[in-house]
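Q: Convert this sequence to structure tokens.
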Amino acid sequence: MNMNRESHMSKRSTLVLLSLLATSLLSLSSAAQQTNPPEAPPPAQDQAKPPAPAKPTIPGPEQQKKDQQSNSSGTSKDRLFYTLPNFLTLENSGQVPPLTTKQKFGVVTRGSFDYVQYPWYAFLSGISQAEDSEPGYGQGAAGYGKRFAASFADGTIENYMTGAILPSLLRQDPRYFQLGQGSFTHRTLYAMSRNLVTRTDSGKEQFNYSEVVGGALSAVISTYTYHPKSHLFSTTTPGVYRFVPSDRTLSNTAKVWGTQYGYDTMTLVIKEFWPDIRRKIKHEPKPSTPATETPVH
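A:
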């Protein structure tokens, strides 16, 4: 197998896993958005009575708590599938104040070192070990440890570059503002476009330099610093050596960036529909968004 291809099999496997999860979530979302059948008309003797005034739709206690947290801190405490950190996604946010530099670094730190990340990277490292991707790391406990450290570093560097460092320097907003309305196709395309278009701290739309350039920079940093160089190592056969080519190539860097971009895009689509699925699971009504609180896209 080509070396450059092997070096990213674990990330591609993760992307396939996310694609399957997204397909399941989006199918449930379509069902959740179907209009309920009209209720049967009231009995004839009750039709003379004036109809009771309609009650406003009130979010459940859990959603009210999350909305209050989002309004006060500008971030969320939500989790995708109730596990993976989803702190930079806002639902029904409307006009919210921009995040300060301290807040950007704080929320990225909170997500990057969340307790869920450790078993997640352990899982990815296990796939990489089984596929013998980046064979320069070797096998056994030592090889697994190197893969785990590399996976953790890759994810953490990318999180800081795209969510804190460049957004602070360029004054861009790293949060994802859920659309929450419109057709399935419209919402999907909107979510996919947020890797190319983002909101600035002043509320205007701008090319998402933080994601595109930040992702490329993180790929360069990780590829050319701690990923394996080319070298020879002995095999179990005496006198026989195996040559492992270097991962530190431009084509490999481009594949790392492309894989990460696809991963982030799929994650945004899941983030767009996750609130609908969560409400469907908990049987909560969808909170209405006032006209003055329409999110800026």
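The longest helix spans residues 250-282.
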